[in-house]
Amino acid sequence: MAITNGPNLNSVPAPQQQALSTNYLDLASTANEGWAQQYVPDLMEREAEVFGPRTISGFLSQVGAEEAMTADQVVWSEQGRLHLSYTGNVNDTTGGANPGTAATTQITIQNDIDGTAGFTATNHGIRVNDTVIVSNSDGIFKCLVVTAAAGAATIDVAPYGQANLPTNATANGTTILVYGSEFGKGVSYMTGGAATTEETGRRANEPDFRSFTNKPIIMKDYYEVSGSDASRIGWVEVSTEMGASGYLWYLKAEADTRARFADYIEMAMLESELNAAASLADGSNLIAGSAAGAGNVGTEGLFAAITDRGNITTGVNGINAATDLAEFDAILAEFDRQGAIEEYMLFVNRSTSLAIDDMLASMNSYGAGGTSYGVFQNSEDMALNLGFSGFRRGSYDFYKSDFRYLNDLATRGGINAANAANAIRGVLIPAGTSSVYDQTVGASMRRPFLHVRFRASQTDDRRMKSWVTGSVGAATSALDAMQLHFLTERCLITQGANNFMLMK
User: Fold this and answer.
1) Which helix (H) or strand (E) covers residue 450, if one does?
2) Which residue ranges form the domains of the chain, and what is each CATH number?
3) pTM
């Protein structure tokens, strides 16, 4: 078995115990690039147990949900719903745009079915000769669209089986769903029925896209040890299959700084916010008091993305198992409305985890139902090793894990304890991938719903950098100390946030 050194390996054994930059151990190097991977493989298991399980960023790293980027921001577009459904009101039952035609009813389109901010009613996709279902408190009616002029927020419909529709002017109180079309013999597709020209007849519907952006933030930290305290250095004697032997060194106290920095990275991807007031020429939202060009615009973290574009539930709180089950089923019903992703990961705090256990125990079916563990390559062992347990409800598979970030008193658990009314108890994240249009490459691509983008190029990989400066070991300056620097530049992409659920 041959050992291949990765391009960033910085661990050449020295014949004497000399603290040089060439034989310094980076204990957190990536696969096939670090000493731990090459010389002590089981060390990675111990590290993964600390940093990987039960944490979102750790899990993303395990399944490879990370991707390099080279620009200052990520721009992606999400496809809207395939089917046409709107809300509005029935405002005229005397012919609408066709006065004297009693068998038509005018309907005003007010919003799309999701109530999307910025929706323009005049851009609806309903066309002449579409067949629609009109539903409100007065009943459900099947209708034929008689008039749907381009650039107008109103349509005229003729109901099947009756003269007109009851007037219902309640704002957004009427739902209009296109379910097909109907044409007479010899009628042109483009001109439809009442229209006489292609310009005023049916028109092709363009795909509906919504664009989103996020920007990476730069995070830094460092650890310093003076030359006089170099006794804190630890030594490891190694020998390789290639015949090299000698000593490698590491800083025992470095692990605490590195672990804390790794947690900061995770927490930033969860908690970060974008500033609210735009003040830069490129549209970035500069933090008040920051100098232009200095950054400080923030980035959109997971919680902010779900709050803005996703779903929030206060259910499944452990008060009553039967009530929790009904509330959990309500969550499934909402997922049905949003896209029906079949696999979800639940990262929850202790109380919510126990509430789910009690709920499942009341059904006497915990672990039953044929959970597929598809996101874990159909390996139950892999899921359990990562701290997940699975169950099925309806057509959905769930993988539940206690999320220590929501439990630890020194992290979000302490914030939750101090403000229980606004506590974050968990998050439901869809597993798998979705198709989005990537404006950078100009094509549709499949990407995980939740993934990290980090700055990297052939010159500099900023996923997780560490380097040594000073006169101790590295000998790069006159400083009588050794400084270990840490840096990352990254952001979180929450794709299809409408399929996520925040538990508060």
Assistant:
1) strand 450-455
2) 17-80+209-504 (no CATH), 81-207 (2.40.10.170)
3) 0.71
